[in-house]
Specification:
By secondary structure, this protein is α/β, with parallel strands linked by helices. Helix content is 51%, strand content 8%. InterPro entries: Integrase_cat-core, Integrase_dom_put, RNaseH-like_sf, RNaseH_sf.
Length: 426
């Protein structure tokens, strides 16, 4: 079996042209290929939870390193990297699970928890053990969680970068946090997932789009979004970059407006995001509001909450995107939705007998668009004036920027108390 896989990969390299100038995400070792030795690459891919054939595929197609399955197994064995007989220490596993349960991990199922343990904590553990431990340490949470599945029409996309779907997510908007995301239709890979003070400003969303173009080296054949003013710049940019294409979706046809609930791929993923941890944050901020600690009519409350929590939420989104892009999509009855990991399906389309459909865009083209439109893609968590005020308060009180929700809450309360004290003394 493995010899067939290796032969297939070799044939792929010979027959297909190399991948375009896509910049891989930082968590993939391929992005660091100039700084890592072969065995270090293998170890990093192993800790991402990739199977042997997936490691071999990335080594060959992204690094030009040819290995046989036996040689790979020897290297893994020499480094003590096995999953069957090398389970991590139980105390380390318990500590990691307890840490996750204190945050957004408290609402996810055992499969998602297993992926967090592997990808975030570099632990070696099987799903069944995670399920058993969760039943012991979090029986109430296990009981409360339930599966919700929707029957949807079959989705069709020919390959990576054939169509992107983008939309805003407003569940945290009442608390000052506006999320915007984009997903590749074929691979279901998250292209971007960002939080800011707004997702309705066309300059902001256009900044996300242009950053993605720099990252992947081009634009999709089709871009789909709802009919909102926040998309006017993106629509113009997409059509400009596709103006010289000769396919059926060239120029004006390369951007499709549609109602939000009809944008199937991204709408379905928002449900995944909520189940994967965002619901915990919604409850967290509602508790702040219900306890009288947050009022959206109070400018200091809004500025303070953004200052304290914006970067933590962005880190949460980064982790959510990474977990999703590395998780394994199960086999579906729909042949147009292939099984596999989104990152594998996206960056190695040859494995699935398809191709990359992006239209290549140079960095010069992107910079030309930015200069012509005068875009300033610098988004602060709050106003510069409040940032200066908060930094003064933190410096005088010996406070540090928070790294988790509880520390952020403590800083938030400290800022509000200090500001109120100053107001009372005026």
């Amino acid at each position: 079996m493995w010899s067939k896989v290796i032969r297939r990969i070799v044939v792929i390299v010979i027959v297909f042209s190399p991948l375009g100038a896509a910049v891989l995400p930082r968590y993939l070792p391929a992005e660091q290929q100039n700084n890592l030795q072969r065995d270090n690459l293998i170890e990093q891919y192993f800790h991402l939870g990739l199977q042997h054939w997936e490691i071999l595929a990335f080594l060959l197609l992204q690094h030009g390193i040819r290995l046989g399955i036996r040689q790979l197994k020897r290297i893994l064995s020499r480094r003590g990297l096995t999953r069957r007989n090398n389970t991590s220490d139980v105390q380390d596993i318990l500590h990691a699970i307890e840490t996750e349960l204190k945050g957004s991990g408290g609402i996810i199922g055992y499969r998602a928890m297993h992926q967090r343990l592997v990808n975030h904590h570099n632990l070696v553990i099987d799903k069944e053990t995670v399920r058993t431990i969760l039943r012991i340490v979090d029986p109430v949470g296990v009981e409360n969680r339930s599966k919700h599945r929707l029957k949807r029409r079959q989705y069709r996309s020919k390959g990576p970068n054939y169509i992107w779907h983008m939309d805003g997510y407003d569940k945290l908007k009442p608390f000052g946090f506006c999320i915007h995301g984009c997903i590749d239709g074929y691979s279901q890979r998250i292209v971007w997932l960002e939080v800011g003070v707004t997702n309705n400003d066309p300059d902001v969303t256009a900044g996300y789009f242009l950053d993605a173009i720099r990252s992947v080296g081009g634009v999709p054949r089709i871009l789909r979004a709802d009919n909102g003013t926040e998309n006017v710049h993106i629509a113009a940019f997409q059509r400009f970059f596709r103006r010289e294409a000769v396919d059926a979706f060239a120029g004006e046809k390369s951007f499709i407006y549609g109602r939000s609930f009809s944008n199937q791929r991204i709408e379905a993923w928002w449900g995944q995001l909520r189940r994967g941890g965002m619901d915990w944050w919604i409850t967290f901020f509602k508790d702040l509001r219900d306890n009288g600690l947050f009022c959206d009519d109070n400018i200091f409350h809004v500025e303070s909450i953004r200052f304290c929590f914006m970067f933590i939420i962005q880190e949460e989104l980064n982790k959510a995107a990474k977990l999703w892009n590395l998780h394994r999509i199960r086999t579906s009855t729909n042949p147009e939705s292939p099984p596999g990991r989104p990152d594998m399906l996206y960056f190695l389309p040859e494995i699935s007998n398809t191709q990359d459909y992006k239209t290549v865009v140079t960095v010069d083209d992107v910079e030309l668009v930015e200069e012509t439109c005068g875009l300033q893609n610098v988004q602060l968590p709050c106003s510069p004036e409040f940032i200066s005020l908060a930094e003064i308060i933190m410096r005088e009180n010996g406070l540090m920027m928070p790294s988790n929700a509880n520390d952020a809450k403590a800083l938030y309360i400290e800022l509000l108390d200090t500001i109120k004290e100053v107001e009372d003394n005026l």
